[in-house]
Amino acid sequence: MTAVRKRSVTIRGHRTSFSLEQPFFDDLQAIATDRGMAVAALVAEIDESRPRDANLSSALRIFVLDHAKKSRSA
What would the pLDDT profile of 41-54 be if each residue is shown by its tens digit? Predict the structure, then answer.
């Protein structure tokens, strides 16, 4: 099991942080690269679409999981 690591990004002009296990972060980076965008831009996109009562770290994990599921079924 990999440890959770805290990371910081700047989105919409303010610093925020999230905590993810390395495999989730690796996949998040790969998705951002595939889309031709920075990780911070992808995090901002996910942050904008998440329910306000959802934790950012959880929203990122769900995004990566949903992406993996869609990729498998394609």
Answer: 999 999 999 998 99
